[in-house]
Amino acid sequence: MRHLSAVCLTLLAAQVAAADLAAGRAKAEQVCAACHKIDGNSDNPQYPVLAGQHADYLRRALHDYRNGSRNNGVMLPYAQALSRTDIDNVSAWFASQPSRLVSRP
C-alpha cells in the first residue's frame, strides 16, 4: 500500500511539473481573472478562491463544467473555451499560488 501511494504521488507530481505555469498564468489572465483575480484570490464571495486548491480538483472541475456534468451557466462557456492543455496549465497555475484563506482550529 505504501508503495502504491508513493507511485501515485510521483505520477501526480510529474503531471503538475509537466504543466506550463507561464501559459497557465497567461490563460488565467485572459479567461479567469475578471472574477477570480489573476492569482486566484477572489475577494468577492460570489467567486471561489482558486489559489492553493489541488490541481487535480481544479482540473476535474473544469472538465466537468466543460462537458456539462457540473452544471453552471456562468462557467460553461469559459470552460468550453479551454483546451485540455489550457485546463492543465490553468489548474497548475492556481494550485501554485498561495491562498489568502486560512484554516481555523
Span between N and C termini? 31 Å
- What CATH architecture would you give? Orthogonal Bundle
Number of strands: 0
Number of H/I helices:
6
Q: Which homologous superfamily in CATH is the superfamily?
A: Cytochrome c-like domain
Largest sheet: none
Helix and strand composition category? mainly alpha
How many whole angstroms does the radius of gyration measure?
A: 14 Å
Query: Please, how many domains?
Result: 1
How would you describe this protein?
The chain has helices at 2-18, 21-31, 33-36, 55-67, 75-80, 84-96. By secondary structure, it is mainly α. The protein has one domain: Cytochrome c-like domain (Cytochrome Bc1 Complex, Chain D, domain 2, Orthogonal Bundle). Helix 2 (21-31) packs across helix 6 and helix 4 (55-67) packs antiparallel against helix 6 (84-96). The termini are far apart. The mean pLDDT is 89. Pfam families: Cytochrom_C (PF00034). Residues 1-19 form the signal peptide. Residues 19-98 form the Cytochrome c domain.
Q: Any chance you could write out the topology, listing elements then pairs?
A:
Layout: H1 2-18, H2 21-31, H3 33-36, H4 55-67, H5 75-80, H6 84-96
Kindly summarize this structure in a few lines.
Keywords: Electron transport, Heme, Iron, Metal-binding, Signal, Transport. The protein has 105 residues and is an all-alpha fold. It has a single domain, classed as Cytochrome Bc1 Complex, Chain D, domain 2.
